[in-house]
Design a protein that fits this description.
The protein is an alpha+beta fold. It is built from five helices and six strands; from the N terminus they run αβββαβααββα. It has one domain. The strands form two sheets. Strands 2-1-3 form a three-stranded antiparallel β-sheet. Strands 4-6-5 form a three-stranded antiparallel β-sheet. The chain is elongated and about 50 Å long. The two termini are about 10 Å apart.
Length: about 110
């Protein structure tokens, strides 16, 4: 996905009551609706590797029960593989990578 396509996807969403909804399907806006930017979106992901947000990859790897990796790249590969082996979906946006649950990917019409 290009950065422009990704930005358009985020702009088409709102977060309401902890869920991501498409603006055109959400009906009238409500108090508490939040625009979705990368930070809001990141709260719905399993893992991410992004230049814009520090995903704390080493800490995430340790939370999964793995020993420290030799490099950040190796840590990301282990984290990414952990989730992909469990049915998650990898979304690449230029150099960034985001791991989503299959359910979220389907909801966002990415599959």
């Amino acid at each position: 996905m290009t950065r422009a396509e990704f930005d358009a996807l985020l702009a088409s969403l709102i977060e309401r009551d902890g869920a991501l909804l498409f603006r055109d399907q959400a009906g009238p806006s409500r108090k508490g609706d939040e625009d979705v930017d990368l930070y809001v979106f990141s709260g719905h992901l399993e893992a991410l590797r992004s230049e814009e947000i520090d995903g704390e990859i080493e800490e995430h790897l340790m939370d999964l029960g793995y020993p420290p990796a030799a490099s950040e790249e190796a840590a990301w590969e282990q984290v990414r593989d952990f989730y992909l082996e469990r049915g998650c979906v990898l979304l690449r946006v230029e150099a960034d990578e985001y791991v989503l649950s299959e359910q979220l990917a389907q909801h966002l019409k990415l599959l």
